Amino acid sequence: MKLSSEHKLFLKKAEKKAFDKTHREKIKFNISKYDAAVEKGKQIYSNLDLARNHAGYIKYKVINDLDKYLIAFEDNFKRNGGKVIWAKDTREAIHEILKIAIENKVKKVVKSKSMTTEEIELNDAFKKNRIESVETDLGEFIVQQAGQKPYHIVTPAMHMSKEDIAGLYHKKFSTPEDLTPEELTGYTRNLLREKFIESDLGVSGANFLIAETGSIALTENEGNAMLSMSFPKIHIAIAGIEKIIPKLEDLDLFWPLLATHGTGQNMTVYNSIISGPKKANEKDGPEEMYVILLDNGRTNLLSKERQRQALSCIRCGACLNACPVYKNIGGHTYDTTYSGPIGSVITPYLKDQKTWKHLSFASSLCGRCTEVCPVKIPIHELLLVNRNDAVEKGFFTYFEKESIKISTTALSSRNKLDMFGGKVKNFGAKLFVEKMWGPRRSLPQFAEKSFSKQWKDKHKE
């Protein structure tokens, strides 16, 4: 078996980004701000561990009875006047969305932040069909103008400094090069207000799907999701099938957990519960509302007894901010919608394990991702399970197999390790390891005598 092109690209990008000092400074600065805010935000809990245990229990219970809760959601949402569309994969989801858009002669779309729409590359589909689609979340708008994908699940433009953004706006909109963050935000607000008024269709994701009431729950800080829902005549919400929670009262648990772990806030600024299109006696809201329930590989993950727990994820991004690998190689290196530790668990099943198995090996297994997860997903353990599955299926190269065999033999015996002196070991390392070690750092040198041999010689004296 050869390395996939995705694996080769990952290694190339990782090697380059890990030694980019400017990138590291930006990420270190932005994540340090996050860390301080989250530490403060968690102080609202008298027993955070109890809340995490309870949230994890609810989500895992839902995952194990997913069919029952999805049917309950569909029945209740339809009763509210909405329409539900089931999409097996990206192709079906895009087909249904474009069908709605074409039937209603949609020319302009406003989108609130949604990783699920990034997953199916909805903006590209709209562009190919000559439909203008504008991201209305500030971070998403910035990366859209830059022609990039989101860098982070919660903070799409985390990799950019205020100077980078001012330069981008100067290039795209001919604004002054030295605009302040407040001025940049004000300019974006004025531009987007016109887009909301002109739009024919609003698209959002869903932080949670509430089975009991047939509602979608959205949490945000800018109000752009509310405007995307209220101005256009049609609203489409796209959500993965795992976003279900049982009851309305469960938001009392999940909304604060998502806020504290995602941004360090006690609660985000705007929290909305939408239960369908506007009623006859209501002035605001869409005339038609659709919820697209997307599988797109999630049932592959659901079939795995251990890894299915990863479907409990509430997309707070805490594991990304805690991960030493993510902080060094950056979000774009993963080349997937869901990056970082949680993305490394789920991507091989949302896409193709043979092609994407390398992500599960891109981890130090330090366990920080598991420590910070608000729903107690044992992420680093699931990465090990993924690795085991990949090996059992034969997804490894001849070199990987032989190097493991040789190293296992050598490391299993102190006598074998001490059989050769430092010169021979250094020659072997240079021959077989130096290329993998990379050109930007020096290969460590073996001492002529091992510590064990030096210790024995010393105590003989």
CATH class of the largest domain: Alpha Beta
Query: How are the strands ordered across the major sheet?
Result: 1-10-7-4-2-3
Instruction: Return the CATH architecture of the largest domain.
Output: 3-Layer(aba) Sandwich
- Cα separation of the termini: 52 Å
What does the model show?
The chain has 461 residues and is of the alpha/beta class. It has three domains: 5-35 and 312-392, Fumarate Reductase Iron-sulfur Protein, Chain B, domain 2; 46-296, Rossmann fold (3-Layer(aba) Sandwich), CATH 3.40.50; 405-460, no CATH class. Helix content is 53%, strand content 10%. The protein is built from 25 helices and ten strands. A hairpin with a 4-residue loop joins strand 5 (208-210) and strand 6. The longest helix has 21 residues, at 21-41. The mean pLDDT is 94.
List keywords for this structure.
461 residues, alpha/beta, Fumarate Reductase Iron-sulfur Protein, Chain B, domain 2, Rossmann fold, 3 domains, 6-stranded parallel sheet, 10 strands
Task: Annotate the secondary structure layout.
Blueprint: H1 5-18, H2 21-41, H3 48-64, H4 66-79, E1 83-87, H5 90-103, E2 108-111, H6 115-119, H7 122-128, E3 132-135, H8 138-145, H9 162-173, H10 181-198, E4 201-204, E5 208-210, E6 215-220, H11 224-230, E7 234-240, E8 244-245, H12 251-262, E9 270-274, E10 288-294, H13 298-302, H14 318-322, H15 324-329, H16 340-350, H17 353-356, H18 358-361, H19 368-372, H20 379-392, H21 398-411, H22 414-417, H23 422-432, H24 434-437, H25 451-460
Parallel strand pairs: 1-10, 2-3, 2-4, 4-7, 5-8, 7-10
Antiparallel strand pairs: 5-6, 6-9
